């Protein structure tokens, strides 16, 4: 995430409306809102195709899921931007499906079935709502070191899942699929290096488009849009009745708690960007409630947890436009895209190897974000950070490197220890608490919650 500006934005003149609450004329609102949509559209599109490819969904189901995700992104942007009572931060936020949360959703779906993964989303969203009264206590369990371990392990685990989109379930890919995925990665890289501004932020989407064109022109893949047209609502419960299994849901339950640290940082940064004095104790629970409620709706439509988008904070900094009505306009555009089934049905025809190549880029970036979080943690030789990170990463990587390690253990133990994300995160939390100096533990009994790791 970009760092805070050296000087805060100028305050509004006396008697003038707060910039974040100022209306924007329609002639300016439309292009500004479209810019926000362009900055985040690659995330929902690539996420849906990753889910579709991993779970082998037919084109029609993929189209319906994409419509649902776009509708939820739009509804979330409206809720966060405009607010309803104590729900929504009333800040210029846009929402999208969380990449790390999607990774865990797929992990649960592959190991326990898609209905269990849907149930896990509903449980995780409910847990996030339930712990908000304890916000200041919970957020302290997830300093940069713990967040870094969690995100790094998620990225590593999902690189393996993304690779299966290229190689197929048996792990032996056809050369043409590997070549097509490689060309998609190259196109994505070229777009990111050569383009600037909002176009660079859509490099994943542009890479997918280029990969699809190459597939059609060279015969390396086929473009097969789903049949149908017009406008339609997405399917409710596409994976059937949710199944609730707390042990199977542990990866998402733990992750939902870690999002409080992420939400804190994004809310503080967004407040500073629009010139509002940050008030985490008031605003973070409002943002988290909106995240949780949209995620509950997402579970009913087959998505994973929905989160606020940091990319759009950067757009606000670049343009200098601080009005929350701009992101509300983005929400309206996203709802319209979600209802326009020709758009989602066309996008559903993207070849699987192209999706795999894009997913490799997305989840490799997630892994690097974890490394960056660890870099900001205290890993000096004088503290316990190095030992904590080393043991937590060992606990998290063992299930990936030695999949049969816990075969002889009881089911509940295999569920916890066999999930690298859960094992690594719980190890990091436990060691952070146990090895923290007593004086520091006592000193941290109160005060404001920390910012984003």
From TrEMBL:
Coiled coil: none annotated. The chain crosses the membrane at residues 37-55, 61-79, 116-135, 142-163, 175-195, 204-226, 246-269, 325-343, 355-374, 386-406, 412-435. Pfam families: Xan_ur_permease. InterPro entries: NCS2, Xan_ur_permease. Keywords: Cell membrane, Membrane, Transmembrane, Transmembrane helix, Transport. It is a multi-pass membrane protein. PROSITE patterns: XANTH_URACIL_PERMASE. It is found in: Cell membrane. PANTHER family: PURINE PERMEASE C1399.01C-RELATED (PTHR42810), URIC ACID TRANSPORTER UACT (PTHR42810:SF4). Belongs to the nucleobase:cation symporter-2 (NCS2) (TC 2.A.40) family. This is Uracil-xanthine permease family protein. It comes from Streptomyces gulbargensis.
